[in-house]
Write a structure and sequence with these properties.
Length: 570
């Protein structure tokens, strides 16, 4: 090769290296810089340039084509909850963006980190009521930690860096970035450079608690006669499971979890008394009125836990460990507030709390368990009539040794699974807690499997919930992921019917369902399945599901008017 040709080739390479990126390409580079591997999305008119950019990155980025944008948001939630990483979803403008809203609202209340990307009409069309134009920034402002509209390709690296930082920092939650079509397809005017955000002026979530707050909390704990720990989702979010276990074992304090706190501590731990709340266990609920110091760790005293907040633990002094200062004193006044990350707070407290023995106090909890057995557990396992939901959950728990990742939808089955699955591993109970979103489980189970591919993922879903996002069976099939979906079918909107039975004089108003052939539908999507209605066939049916290579739908016909107890009316 001549010197002249060599110089020309080098010049070509140099030009190629400096080639300006489109906004869509820049977005992909941002994803790679943040370590994103999986994206859940659905293309459309206003996001086409981003998808065109994605076309050249499919060897490095795995895009999952959902069947509905709500499915993308829930799948991103499941991914985040199972992996501890930020979930990513994408949708086009207008109805695509508004279809994300339920998932974003779910994520904000359950503190799930998501970055949502939406396409938007071109900048010059903003405010003109153009085709599929919607003010997604205005719509999502109340349900996102932060949102931003990008109108220039040059903004994309900085905004995406901030988005991923804000989604994960402090109290996690969803962030939305809306990108106009011209910003997606326009060329950057400067070389692409991505700097991960580690600090934002004006945004300083406190991670390490103040020393005086730690001292006051420890003082109350060490002087308590009947201390009681309530722990929530914050323990899992902060990855504080080991520190929490050490704290519980050193102090010997009995503890109970919120619904989303389940699996932060193994269910068979001697200090774990169960979970509390409206449908929670008897002893944990009763004993909130007997403790003298209540230590709330990573939980927010929501109404499903407290009932009438003015009566909840009114005799107790409260220690409240929470990263979000807005939660302190919002529902219950804390004598010892500790603002900071749960993991960091427990690290500081561990050397200071006394080693103790609360055997006698723990026994007070245990004394109440026979009452629950008599009025709740024995009824749930009364093997007569149709199959009970509890039977199914317990059998699955035994066969999986309590080690599966359980994803649940909303309703009676949600509470039954929380009660009877014996969770042995952390991050094993993934549910829509604060928003109570029906249709959560099918897409969230797919996201969970992709976020934790080495774990067995099993979803418990009601027949009503199943039909909310049934189309995502197509997504599961197309991805080839292995998730097991168990429909607990009572042909009712079970929890609503229960309320109508108990509090509305059995006026069953629009709660009975005429369901399709779920197994035929599943097979239509290419997923195997079976329906079982006889108790004698249940064991073999569950074995067949668990042993099947690939995804599987097991429909279990359960007692039609079974109720979930205990129940404290809201």
């Amino acid at each position: 090769m001549s010197k002249e040709l060599e110089v020309m080739d080098m010049a070509k390479e140099s030009t190629s290296e400096k080639k300006a990126l489109t906004g869509g390409q820049a977005l992909m580079e941002c994803f790679l810089a943040e370590g994103v591997e999986t994206i859940f999305g659905y293309p459309g008119g206003a996001i086409m340039p981003i998808y065109d950019g994605l076309y050249d990155y499919t060897d490095r980025l795995n895009h999952v084509l959902v069947r509905h944008e709500q499915g993308a948001a829930h799948a991103a939630e499941g991914f985040a909850r199972a992996s501890g990483r930020v979930g990513v979803c994408m949708a086009t403008s207008g109805p695509g963006a508004t279809n994300l809203v339920t998932g974003l609202a779910d994520a904000i209340i359950d503190c799930t980190p998501i970055v949502a990307i939406t396409g938007q009409v071109a900048s010059h069309l903003l405010g003109t009521d153009a085709f599929q134009e919607t003010d997604v920034i205005g719509i999502t402002a109340p349900i996102c930690k932060w949102n931003y509209q990008v109108t220039n390709a040059d903004e994309i690296p900085e905004i995406l860096s901030k988005a991923f930082f804000i989604a994960k920092a402090g109290k996690p939650g969803p962030v939305l970035v809306d990108i106009t079509k011209d910003a997606q397809q326009g060329l950057m005017t400067k070389p692409f450079e991505y700097k991960k955000t580690t600090y934002l002026p004006g945004y300083h979530p406190r991670v390490t608690p103040k020393h005086d707050q730690i001292e006051r909390a420890v003082e109350l704990i060490n002087n308590a006669k009947r201390p009681y720990v309530l722990f929530g989702h914050g323990v899992l979010i902060s990855q504080a499971m080991q520190e929490f276990k050490e704290f519980i074992e050193k102090t010997d304090i009995p503890c109970a979890s919120t619904l989303l706190g389940i699996s932060a501590l193994p269910i068979d731990h001697p200090n774990y008394m169960g979970w509390l709340g409206m449908h929670g266990m008897y002893a944990p609920n009763v004993m909130t009125d007997q403790c003298d110091v209540l230590i709330a760790i990573g939980m927010r005293f929501d109404d499903r836990v407290t009932g009438d907040a003015s009566l909840f633990a009114k005799q107790a002094k409260i220690v409240h460990i929470e990263i979000d200062p807005a939660e302190i004193d919002k529902i219950k006044k804390a004598e010892a507030p500790v603002v900071g990350d749960v993991k960091e707070a427990l690290k500081l407290m561990l050397p200071l709390v006394k080693t103790n023995d609360y055997t006698a106090w723990k026994n007070e909890f245990r004394k109440l368990e026979p009452r629950e057995k008599e009025f709740v557990t024995d009824r749930d396992f009364k093997f007569e009539g149709q199959i009970k939901m509890a039977e199914v959950v317990k059998m699955v728990s035994d066969k999986t040794k309590g080690e599966a990742c359980i994803v649940v939808d909303v309703g009676q089955h949600q509470m039954v699974s929380a009660r009877y699955y014996e969770f042995k591993k952390c991050h094993s109970y993934i549910a829509s807690g604060g928003l109570g979103t029906m249709g959560f489980a099918i897409p969230a189970s797919l996201g969970a499997k992709m976020g934790a591919p080495d774990r067995q993922v099993i979803a418990f879903i009601g027949d009503g919930c199943f039909q909310m996002t049934i189309q995502e069976l197509g997504t599961i099939s197309q991805t080839g992921q292995e998730v097991k979906l168990i429909i607990l079918n009572n042909n009712y909107l079970g929890m609503v019917r229960q309320w109508q039975q108990l509090f509305f004089e059995k006026r069953y108003s629009f709660v009975e369902l005429h369901n399709p052939d779920f197994i035929m539908v599943a097979k239509g999507f290419g997923i195997e399945g079976k329906k079982v209605s006889e108790r004698a066939n249940l064991n073999d049916a569950i074995d067949e599901m668990l042993n099947h290579k690939g995804s599987y739908v097991l429909e279990v016909v359960v007692e039609k008017e079974e109720n979930v107890f205990p129940m404290v009316p809201a």
